[in-house]
Amino acid sequence: MSEQQNVYPVRDDIAANAWADEKTYAAMYQRSVDDPEGFWAEHAKRLDWMKVPNKIKNTSFDRNNVDIRWFEDGELNVAVNCIDRHLEKRGEQTAIIWEGDDPNDAKHISYRELYEHTNQLANALKELGVSKGDTVTLYMPMIPEAAMAMLACARIGAVHSVVFGGFSPDAVAQRVIGANSTLVITADESVRGGKQVPLKDNVDAALTRDGTDVCKNVLVVKRTGGDIDWKEGRDLWFADLVDKQSTECEPEAVGAEDPLFILYTSGSTGAPKGLKHTTGGYLTYTAMTHQYVFDYQDGEVFWCTADVGWVTGHSYIVYGPLANGATTLMFEGVPSYPSHGRIGDIVDKHNVNILYTAPTAVRALMAHGDNVMDSSKRDSLRLLGSVGEPINPEAWEWFYRVIGNGKCPIVDTWWQTETGGIMISPLPGATPLKPGSATKPFFGVQPALVDNEGNLLEGATEGNLVILDSWPGQARSIWDDHDRFVQTYFSTYDNMYFTGDGCRRDEDGYYWITGRVDDVLNVSGHRMGTAEIESSLVAHDAVAEAAVVGYPHDIKGQGIYIYVTLNDGIDPTDELKKELTKWVRKDIGPIASPDVIQWAPGLPKTRSGKIMRRILRKIAANECDGLGDTSTLADPSVVDELIEQRVNQ
Ligand code: PRX
C-alpha cells in the first residue's frame, strides 16, 4: 500500500523561516473556510487596488444560477501590480531571466526595463486600435515579448488569449474566431531544441480560414530572421511599431471581475473551451499561492519550466511571481538540448532556488540514469515542485535524490486550467511529504470526494474529486458560453464544482489524485480530449470510425492509442498509419501525435451504439484478461478480434 511508503518530515530549517509552519497553516486554513470573507478581504490587501473592494465574496454553485464574483466592486490594474509598484524598491532587480534555446543566449530584464517595454507595447496596441475589453491572440515563442504582451494587454484592459506555439493553424484559427481577436501577436519562428518552428507561416495559414477576417493585424517579433511571407497592410514588425512608442502608458482601472484572459483547454466532448479568468481574484490567488506553496523568499530565483501557452505559465511564470516582485526564469528551449543535463546547467548558471517542473520531464531524465545531471551541482536549489499529472513515487524519489541532491522538499501541486492556481499541495514548512500525494488543500479550498450519485464520502476512501465552495482564482465562465460552463462543471453533482479527476484520501486526510475519470487524456502533462482526436480522424477519407483512449506510457504518463475502422475497400497499410499520424499532427498539433494506431474491423459497442471505452482502454494497456462483463455488447466477438489484432500487429 502506498501509505507504507516513505514519509518525509518537514525540515526544521525550512519550517523556521517559512511563511507557514504546521500551526500557521492549520490556523489559516481553518479561518479561510470558517470566514472566507474576512480571510480574503485581508489577503486581497497584498495587491494595490485603485478602488479597494468592499464586497468580497458573492458566489453560487447552484446549477440554476452559477455566478462567481470576488471583490466585485474593486478596481485594479494587473500590470501595475506586477511591475509599477515594485519600481521604487526593485527597479534595478531582475524581473525576468531569459535563457535562450542556445546555451549562449541569455538576458536579464530588470523591473524598470519590463516597465518601459511593456508600456511601449501597450501604446503600440492602442495605436492599432486595441482598447479595453478587446481580445488579442498571442502565438509566441518563449521569449520575454510573450510576457510583455500579456502584461501590455492587462495594462490597457484588453484580454489576451495565448495559444500554445505547438498548436496547428486550425487551432489558431478557431481561437481567433472564438475570441474575436482583431490582432495576433507572433514571431517569425520559434526555436526549440535547435529546430525552427514556423509560427508566422502557421498564422498566415490560420488567417486564410473562413471567419478569421476579424483579425486586422499581425504583429511579428523578429526572433530568427528566417524567411517569411508578408502581407502588406496587415503584417507589422514588432520593432518598427513598438520601439518608437513612449515608455509611459497610463494604466486602465479595471474592474475586479473584468476578464484578464481567455485560455483554451480540452474537455471530454466537443471543441476546446475558452475559459474566462478575471482580474482581482485571479491575481490575489496566484500571488498568494506562489508565495506560500513555493515558500518564495525575497531575492530568490524561481523557475517554472512550463510554456506560457499553458495555465502553469500564465500563473507561475508571469502573474504570480511578478505580482510578488520575484525574479522569474523563462526558458525558450527543451530539457534535452543540447544535452540531457540542460536543466541542471541552467540551475547552476542562474543560481535557481526553486524549480517547478512536470513529472514527464523528470521521467525522461530518469531514463538516462543517475549520471544525467553530472554536468551540474545544483547547490542553489532549495525547493522542487511538480505539476500536470500524477507523479509516480519512483519518479518522485529520483527527483528528490538526484536533481534535488536529497535536500529539497517537493511540492506536488494539483490544479487545473479552470482553477487558475494551485489547489492541493504541501506547504514546505508545514506539510510532511508522501511521494505521490498532492497532500492537503490550500487556504480556502474545500475538496471532497463523492460517489457517482454525488453522495459525500467520509474518511479514508476513494471517489470523484469535487470542490464544495468557490475560491478567488477560479474561472468564471466559458467565453461566450456560460451554459457549457454550467453543464461541464456544475451539473454532474448538485452545488459542487466537479474537477473530472478521481482521487483517494488516506487516513491522514492526504489527497492522492488518481487521474481523469472522463474522456480527457493527459499526455506529458498536456491535456487533450479524445473526442477532438476522433473527430480529426473521421474527417480523413479512409476512416469510417475511430476511438481514442489513453494507455500507460513510461515517460509521457499516458500515450495516445487509436483504434481505426477503415472504409470498405481501403487497405490497412503501414503507409496509411503514417499518413493518419501526419493528419492528426497537422490538424491539432504535434502534441496530439498518436503513439499507437490499431486497425479495428469493429469497435465494441453497447446495443444502443455507445462505444465501451473501458474495454478499449484495457486492450490498449494489454490487460486483456480483466475485461470484465462484455455481455452487454451488441457483438462480443469484436473484442476477440481486437485482442488478436493487438498481438499480431
Ligand atoms: O488530471 C489532473 C492533472 O491535470 C489536469 C489539469 O490539466 P490542465 O488544465 O492542463 O492543467 C495542468 C496544470 C495545472 C487535472 O485535472 N493534474 C494536474 N496536476 C496534477 C494532476 N494530476 C495529479 N497530480 C498533479 N499534481
From TrEMBL:
Source superkingdom: Bacteria
MF terms in GO: acetate-CoA ligase activity
Residues annotated for ATP binding in this entry: G388, E389, P390, D412, T413, W414, W415, Q416, T417, D501, R516, R527
UniProt entry tagged with the keyword Secreted: no
Broadest EC class assigned to this enzyme: ligase
Record flagged with keyword Ligase: yes
Modification comment: Acetylated. Deacetylation by the SIR2-homolog deacetylase activates the enzyme.
Chain positions with N6-acetyllysine modification: K610
Positions that bind CoA: R192, G193, G194, K195, T312, S524, R585
Acetyl-coenzyme A synthetase N-terminal domain residues: 25-82
PROSITE patterns in the record: AMP_BINDING
Family label: Belongs to the ATP-dependent AMP-binding enzyme family.
Function: Catalyzes the conversion of acetate into acetyl-CoA (AcCoA), an essential intermediate at the junction of anabolic and catabolic pathways. AcsA undergoes a two-step reaction. In the first half reaction, AcsA combines acetate with ATP to form acetyl-adenylate (AcAMP) intermediate. In the second half reaction, it can then transfer the acetyl group from AcAMP to the sulfhydryl group of CoA, forming the product AcCoA.
Protein name: Acetyl-coenzyme A synthetase
